[in-house]
Every structure is written in structure tokens, then in C-alpha cells.
Amino acid sequence: MEPKIQKITPNLWFNTQAEEAVQYYASIFQDVKIGRMTRYSKEGFEIHGMPEGTVLTIEFQIAGQEFTAMNGGDAFTFNEAVSFIINCTSQEEVDYYWDKLTAGGDESAQVCGWLKDKFGVSWQVVPVQLNEMLMDEDSTKADRVMRALLQMKKLELSELQKAYEG
């Protein structure tokens, strides 16, 4: 039986911290599997300035979502144009991921549950109830929620619920 291959796999380009980042994510998320790893040959130094034996790529999964982390040097950096949404079922879960991912990262410039972890990767930590509130047929309720949402860095479910209920 052939292994199932995910059609689209996000590839995260790190300078030299791919292995550290994968271990970091494995310490935060419960359902993490670390897979195959490739290493630079001596040609890696000539192309990317990476010493022979340095990790090139690491395959890993978070909650069944496949990723690849790679050490590619400093040619590219992360920005907010791409982020990963963490759908949370409770405020406790929002708090957990927010606290873990902002440790050494950045929450100051972001709103609406958006943050950067210590590697510069952007995440959105969102209670699943938010979409239902924003999609309510009563536009007055949805507008109040949006107004409250735009004032928050870390999302507070109780405050969003108060706005929803008026």
C-alpha cells in the first residue's frame, strides 16, 4: 500500500533553525509527528553556505497537517502574508496557544488573534465560535462582534460573546 501524499504541503523556510523550530512546535502541539530528514551534502556549502551534515529539510505533521521545514539561509524571511489558523474550542485553548506561541515572539503589532512566534511565523489563534457570530444573519450582531474583534490582540471569547448578545 502506497503512503497517502498530501496534495499541498506548506514549506517553511528557516535560516538555520528548522530542526529547532520543529522541536519547538512539537513541544506546543499535542498531535505532532516528526518524519524524514534530509541533510546538506558538501555542495550545500557552495549553494547555501550550509556545512555538510546540516539539516536541509524535516517533514512533520501537526494534527494531521503535513509541513516541511527547511534550512535555506537568510535569503527569505517570514511575514504576515501567510499565517496558520489554530481553531480553538475554548478560551483556555486560546490562552494556551497564545501564551506558548508569543513566548519569545511578538504580539504587539498584531490584532484579531494574530501573533508571530519566536521564528517569525505568523499564527491566528481563533475560537471556533467566532465564525458563527460573524456569519449571523443579523448584521447588527455581526457588526458588533467585528467592532469588538478589531479592538483585540488576543481574542477573548467572553467579550466577543457580550458584543454578539448586545
How is this structure best described in words?
The chain has 166 residues and is α/β, with parallel strands linked by helices. The protein has two domains: 61 residues, Signal recognition particle alu RNA binding heterodimer, srp9/1 (2-Layer Sandwich); 83 residues, 2,3-Dihydroxybiphenyl 1,2-Dioxygenase, domain 1 (Roll). It is 33% helix and 25% strand. It has six helices and seven strands. The strands form two sheets. It has a four-stranded mixed beta sheet, with helices on one face. α5 runs antiparallel to α6. The model has no long low-confidence stretch (mean pLDDT 92). It comes from Planococcus chinensis. It holds the Pfam family 3-dmu-9_3-mt. This is VOC family protein.
